[in-house]
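Ligand: TLP. Inputs:
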Amino acid sequence: MDFIDLRSDTITQPVTEMRRHMAEADVGDDVFGEDPTVNALQDKICELTGKEAALFVTSGTQANQIAINAHTQPGDEVICEYRSHIFNYEAGAPALLSGVQVHPIQGEHGILQPAQIEEVIRPRDHHFPVSRLIGLENTHNRWGGVIYPLEAIKEMRTFADNQNLLMHLDGARLWNASAATGIPIKTYASYFDSVSLCFSKGLGAPVGSVIAGNERFIERAHYYRKVYGGGMRQAGIIAAGALYALEHHTGRLMEDHIRARKLAEELNMLTGLVIDLQRVQTNIVIIDTSLSGIPANEFEALLSQNHVRMKAISPSRLRAVTHLQISDDDIKHTINAFKNILKHQHSLVD
Ligand code: TLP
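Predicted complex:
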């Protein structure tokens, strides 16, 4: 039996039709700006985000890091939520590549309030770094795929304007936020100076992300993409996968959300597991295993013996992510795997 792989929505395999589109894509040298498929994708992203310009890049990490580099000067400070991807999972890149420091702040389930940022903004004085950029994440991965409320984004924008701060959106899963709320990508993007979007998560393309912003920002981003060795030649092959995903896979994201919800509700009924159902808003489920007496990494191994893969993201928490290749039957099997493990554990304790 194959594994039911809920470790991430990054593990999806390109579907046959997507592969066909990729194989047949018109291509050119994108470093010369001559790849028609990459150009079509960038145009499409401008339309979707309402931004002046867009740039196709290799990964979500590269997108965020190029944006940080393009917005800042060495010595600046970037304010992020303390569980954000930028602060936790990008290998210390803001310091390494842009020479900036991240100022992490704990938000309420990932949501930051302007007042919290006001507290940490640096006075203009030679002792301090310059507070330059606020980075928000929507949906917020480590807080369980929660959606950043539009009202909170609007308030942050007003605050940022008053304080002369820039705003970047890590929108790796903005597609999921948009599918769940019905709020267009363009509306979300309009409150940010730059936005990054990924094609290789819920959309199921094998590779690729994009950054969008104004012409001047994208000009700088283009330079940094080159610096990072991210200029690709006949990149239309992969851009075609992204275009296919935009056309065929955005409309099905609610299926993933419904399956995540089902998984969360059923698991939450089992003794030993706790899930904050209010936070299960998209395709991510965070499962607290502490009451079961089984540490999350052991749970991960036991699930694997039952042909289910999940990731332990802390000693007491597992993360499950639904995606294109997870079916209703897979969810049923996963719930049964949890039941088996807990039954066995209870029989050992009794
Ligand atoms: N997230 C991955 C891991 O790196 C944790 C995952 O499995 O969820 N922003 C957000 C919000 C992300 O969740 C990710 C990937 C990225 C950026 C980076 O994207 P890639 O992996 O393309 O560099």
